[in-house]
């Protein structure tokens, strides 16, 4: 009888709106805790180094920027790197196209992480592995946990949002501190100069935080930076390195 009484006392009637609201809110927060806990899991080894390329959806295939981004992704795929983009048109398509051209002999993947948008209904034709999100927030988190390096090519508000999110995650250590964050193109010079000047003038960040991003003007410069990190990544992935670290 006592057990039945306790069960009855825990029942919340739908007519009790405040109690129902509290249960719903608590349940949602508990779901977020579960998701956050699951995203702590990482594979012991990843088959290939992954470079995410963020860029404009508006660039046309005949543009200089499109050709540059396509060549960048092709060169990285030839290094046996996976290429990750937002899966849409423009410079995202350029990166996925370059990845498919350069990765066929190596087995590299051309990956697109999409979000539902009314003006971008389909994934670009060069995405080989696609993922779909309903919100920007879960999509941005997916980029963060799926990537080993980030290249920011010309883009607008969305590209800037993605770049700044990665910058902060590196700053606070949610992404490893030496993760390459590379702004490619002269258009980013002013943003980074402004950030360094204003953040330090008003003491809004530590000096070392402004050194996190690199700014380069050619794909070759970006590739040189990524080659160095890729080499270190390969060492960390080797069983011998893991065994030595464990013994130490």
From TrEMBL:
Coiled coil: none
EC number: 3.2.2.4
Enzyme class of the recorded protein, top EC level: hydrolase
InterPro entries for the chain: LOG_fam (IPR031100), LOG_family_nucleotidases (IPR052341)
Record-level GO cellular component terms: cytosol
Superkingdom: Bacteria
Pfam families, per the entry: Lysine_decarbox (PF03641)
Catalysed reaction, written as an equation: AMP + H2O = D-ribose 5-phosphate + adenine
Gene Ontology MF term list: AMP nucleosidase activity
Protein name per UniProt: AMP nucleosidase
Gene source species: Estrella lausannensis
Lineage summary: Bacteria, Pseudomonadati, Chlamydiota, Chlamydiia, Parachlamydiales
């Amino acid at each position: 009888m006592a057990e039945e009484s306790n069960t009855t006392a825990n029942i919340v009637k739908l007519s009790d709106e405040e109690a129902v609201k509290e249960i719903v809110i608590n349940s949602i927060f508990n779901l977020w805790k579960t998701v956050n806990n699951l995203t702590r899991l990482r594979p012991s080894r990843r088959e290939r180094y992954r470079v995410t390329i963020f860029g404009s959806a508006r660039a046309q295939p005949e543009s200089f920027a499109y050709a540059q981004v396509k060549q960048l992704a092709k060169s990285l795929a030839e290094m046996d790197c996976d290429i990750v983009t937002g899966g849409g048109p423009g410079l995202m398509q350029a990166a996925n196209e370059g990845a498919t051209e350069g990765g066929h002999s190596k087995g590299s993947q051309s990956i697109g992480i999409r979000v539902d948008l009314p003006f971008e209904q389909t994934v670009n034709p060069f995405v080989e592995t696609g993922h779909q999100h309903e919100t920007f927030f879960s999509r941005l988190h997916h980029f963060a946990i799926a990537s080993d390096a980030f290249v920011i090519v010309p883009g607008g508000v969305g590209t800037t949002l993605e770049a700044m999110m990665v910058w902060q995650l590196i700053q606070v250590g949610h992404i490893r501190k030496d993760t390459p964050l590379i702004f490619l193109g002269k258009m980013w010079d002013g943003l980074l100069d402004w950030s360094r000047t204003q953040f330090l003038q008003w003491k809004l960040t530590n000096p070392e935080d402004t050194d996190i991003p690199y700014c380069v003007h050619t794909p070759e410069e970006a590739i040189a930076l990524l080659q160095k990190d890729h080499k270190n990544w390969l060492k960390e992935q080797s069983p011998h390195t893991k065994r030595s670290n464990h013994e130490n």
